[in-house]
Amino acid sequence: MITITITITIVFISPAISQPNFGCSNKTRNYTANSIYSANLQHILSSLPTDDRIAEGFLNISYGEGSNRVNAIALCRGDLTQEVCRSCLGDSVLELPIGCPDKKEALIWYSNCMFRYSDVRILGVVQDTPTFWIWNLEDAKDIQGFSQVVQGLLAQLAGEAALRDSKLKFAAANVSIENEDYSSVYGMVQCTPDISLSQCFNCLQTLAEVVQTWCPGKIGARMMRPNCNLRYEIQSFFDPAAVSGVSRSTPPPSPPSPLSSISPPHLSPNTSTNAEEKDSKRLKTVIIIVLPVVVVVVLVVLIVSIFIFLRARKQKVGVTGSEVDDTADLETLVFDISTIRNATDDFSDENHIGQGGFGAVYKGTLVNGQEIAVKRLSQNSMQGGSEFKNEVQLVAKLQHRNLVRLLGFCLYEDERILVFEFLENSSLDKFLFDPLKGQDLDWGMRYKIILGIVRGLVYLHEDSQIKVIHRDLKAANILLDAEMNPKISDFGMAKLFQDDETRRNTNKIVGTRGYMAPEYAIYGAFSNKSDVFSFGVLILEIVTGQKNSSFYQEKNIDDLISYAWRNWREGTALNVVDPILRGGPSNEIKKCINIGLLCAQEHPADRPNMDTVLLLLNSDTITQPILSPPVDFMNRKPKSDISSPERSGSHVVEME
């Protein structure tokens, strides 16, 4: 069987999947042969194969102190014997230092085990790189039907593995399949036991989505990340004896009721009757005694809860008597209006650094010398009290290096003010669309910005405690710090989704012309795929250095997405690239154009999730052709005429 293995740094054809795959960190953290780190690493490498804890299939071990501390994790496939596990890890500790010489962070994958080490903490830390892909070149006869079977199997296994205990997050099974030359599909998934249930499920779900997107109908595939892996084949590859409930040809039995697992004693008929009568009398007595007590307890709890709620509501009063509901635990973020005025020199013109659709932004300096950015909402702003509270509550809960950090807020009479960390380089659009400043953005800088935006969106959509849809992602809302690290800002239009919520409809369209997904601009339907579409437009703007809203090609008015698509289809994709980037890495630039067009697909189901985008950006794979042409915005209009203030692209439109 011929398979293709794709890693972050290597693309090669491999005749067998038993060969190791290496993930060598490209960071500059190297060690020398006679260093303390080298000695600590050798200690772990020599002791790991004989460690008794390998019997459980997972082992984490650390040795050393400070910057010379080595942290290691070893994982064996859940169906393997202890002997096979030891043998695989024995090979791993020998091969990894050879495959990744002098690296302080490295990983090796075999088909039976994984071993990795690092000078930073890795236990319980979810990482999306490196990623290895292996798939069979052969397609199933019924590609769509086969893909549906595979996805169903992988989804069920992901749930089973995530729900396992902390020692083994592993599941394997097979499912019958019709209309093919083979009778079953066999699947296996596994996570490292150190991550949580949700982290395991999300990790496996991401891999399954990549399989569905990039390997539809392939009769076999494997995907591996540091914290999870999956595999499916048309031949059995795991030990059925080591896996419970292997066959899925029939529905799995329903779980027993809580009492069904307790077998009653064997009684004669008469004894059974007498026992039933006694039990019935005893039950009536218990009910007579317990029921009133339960009622009293419930009433007391209810009264106390109401009292606590009313008292807490009464205490939720903001600055100068302005009531702000649902802002509990935000007291430490409250700024006094005098502090804000002193910091900004009473909102002087000299400190005015920006203007948005909802008000002005000022630079300020606190008494301790800390620089701040002050967003002062205009009194006639379309962002009312609800939008203000929305932004305060959302941003205060979100903590990520690629999200702007909220320092506090102020409510005083008609003033509504937000205080953020000050970012020296303002917003991305100030660089991207300026002929002079744009020259400072070489491809390395732009690629760094793209990756940072993606990581921020992955956090909002998947990794944060609350699932957030931004709804106004654009270059003006990407701020840059002194090192040009991007931070997503302006959450006034954001929406909070429940864990099981995937889509919502609204009659109030908010966002920016040119960045809004067609299903949102036309029908008011939005989801995480709406942000994906906006990112698709944004990444094309970063590559081309052109605004989507003001893009012209020769004498024909053409939006940026259509222009990029036409050149991609004609094989001239590099024609759309910013001239400043000419001579840059063409494969990486074309990959970003490809991803941008994929994210800007007309139908939400055809767009990838942001964690899949991150996976693609971190891999040296050649992305697949675009599924279909982009939406023709020139001939499609929303239900309402969307107009926005000339000085800002943001708007709120009530649809009829």
Automatic annotation (TrEMBL):
SMART domains referenced in this protein's UniProt entry, alphabetically: S_TKc (SM00220)
Transmembrane segments: 286-310
Subcellular location: Membrane
Keywords per UniProt: ATP-binding, Glycoprotein, Kinase, Membrane, Nucleotide-binding, Receptor, Repeat, Serine/threonine-protein kinase, Signal, Transferase, Transmembrane, Transmembrane helix
Signal peptide, first to last residue: 1-18
Region feature (Disordered): 245-276, 628-656
Membrane topology note: Single-pass membrane protein
PANTHER family: CYSTEINE-RICH RECEPTOR-LIKE PROTEIN KINASE 29 (PTHR27002:SF1073), RECEPTOR-LIKE SERINE/THREONINE-PROTEIN KINASE SD1-8 (PTHR27002)
Full protein name: Cysteine-rich receptor-like protein kinase 10
Organism expressing this protein natively: Cucumis melo
Classification lineage: Eukaryota, Viridiplantae, Streptophyta, Embryophyta, Tracheophyta
Record gene name: LOC103489179
